[in-house]
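My current task is to audit a protein record that another person submitted. Thanks in advance; the entry in question is below:
***
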Amino acid sequence: MTIPFDVPSYQDDRAQCRIVATTPEKNPALWEQFLDGAQKSYMRHGVTRALEMSTIRNGSTTALFFAALDRSGTLVGGVRVQGPYSSVDQSHALVEFAEYPDGRRRIHAMLDDRIGHGVVELKSAWVAQDAPRGRAVTAMIAEAPAYSTALLGARYALATAASHVRAAWLGTGAIIATRIAPIPYPDARYETEVFWWDRKTLAFDAELATWRRMRRNTATLLAHRRPAVELPEAVA
């Protein structure tokens, strides 16, 4: 697929992909490919219901999505972003923790504390089974909170994810909500945890090399549009 070069994007040399940041409205054909890839990925893992395709298909709940396009223009993975939220109850994390009152209460309190500063939530992450550099695409997805907060003008990013991706998330500056016990979501094969990113402390929370790469890529993405926010300087 050919994407106009005025669409915010950057080159990821690890994944050997062009990472495009766009919306369902601006790139409906790419959005359909994103949904198709996500459905195949979630179906392969037997968790299709967690995708909630009937809810997300029209794009109205997606403020932004990231798509990794390889050298042939094939979409090999991505993630979508909801928000910034105007209400705590818009968060999908609350739905996932509906049967776990203590965890749901803690998430609600965290959202309530942060929503005034801007909160976005990452959902529907996937990587194609045949992606030759799948781990690098996963690493890109883990960096998406830094890019989405900058592009959408929010301070915080939220994600729920299985514990097997914890290392990748922590490397990009995620903080685990350790007082919230992991839950078996979407099913008992997974231990899903709650992760937060704070744009103002990423320079301290992320691995230094990762922070420098995220800052460079953020500048490239924002060069296509008027910056929504200024990122803090990295520590030396």
User: Anything to note?
Assistant: The chain has a mean pLDDT of 91.
